[in-house]
Write a structure and sequence with these properties.
Helices cover 37% and strands 32% of the residues. It contains seven helices and six strands. By secondary structure, it is α+β, with helices and mostly antiparallel strands. Strand 4 and strand 5 form a beta hairpin. The protein has one domain: Hypothetical upf0131 protein ytfp (Roll). Helix 1 runs antiparallel to helix 7. Strands 1, 2, 3, 4, 5 and 6 form a six-stranded antiparallel beta sheet that branches.
């Protein structure tokens, strides 16, 4: 794994540790009922759609359901047929089958009315990504979720937008506000220290992709 991939994957994982809440028991029951009657679906995001602001821009119903991991897959960067978009100017995320690996992400609960919009965002009709159903493991249950896998992926270095991360400062600030008595305090303080190191490493790269 390259340094670019390691830094980016680690930052995405720390986003999940520091910023994504776990659902309450009542929330789990309500969401299960909604899925059974077909009014909502679960979407497993692992890349840029970890960002609430990006996802909700065209999919306003999206709400965080939980953090989860997808077993026997790995996160990779690339472009559909090797063609980088003018917007991203580098590799974007997808997943591929890889026994023994795992991908961490966020499960979003969304209204069925946003399904078409989500497919559009992932360029399904253009053939860039295909929707698939995957089973992910959350802290309290296994979940069936929709996610997307790139077609005809050609590996490429990550887009500069994945590397030019200003968010670590926010994660560090949030971690610093937590009580030292919190049962997860040690883990979060380690995450904070690690983010400092990642931020410094990214600034020192000075690499134009």
């Amino acid at each position: 794994m390259s340094l670019f991939h390691f830094l980016t994957l680690s930052l995405l994982f720390l986003v999940l540790i520091l910023l994504v809440p776990l659902p309450s028991e009542d929330s789990i029951m309500d969401n299960s009922s909604d899925r059974q009657n077909g009014s909502t679906f679960l979407y497993f995001a692992y890349g840029s759609n970890l960002l609430k602001e990006r996802l909700q821009l065209k999919n306003p119903s999206a709400t965080v359901y939980c953090v989860a991991k997808l077993k026997d897959y790995k996160l990779v960067f690339g472009n559909h047929k090797g063609l980088a978009s003018q917007r991203w100017r580098g590799g974007v995320t997808t997943i591929e089958h890889s026994p023994g690996d795992e991908v961490w992400g966020v499960v979003w609960r969304m209204n069925m009315s946003d399904l078409e919009s989500l497919d559009r965002q992932e360029n399904v009709k253009m053939g860039t990504y295909s929707p698939v159903e995957v089973n992910v493991s959350a802290s309290r249950q296994d979940l069936s979720c929709r996610t997307y896998i790139m077609n005809s992926c050609v590996y490429a270095p990550p887009s500069p937008q994945y590397l030019q991360v200003r968010s670590p400062a926010l994660f560090i600030e949030n971690a610093g506000r937590l009580s030292k008595g919190n049962q997860d305090g040690l883990k979060l303080r380690k995450a904070r220290d690690t983010l400092h190191n990642f931020s410094s490493a990214i600034r020192s790269l000075h690499v134009t992709l």
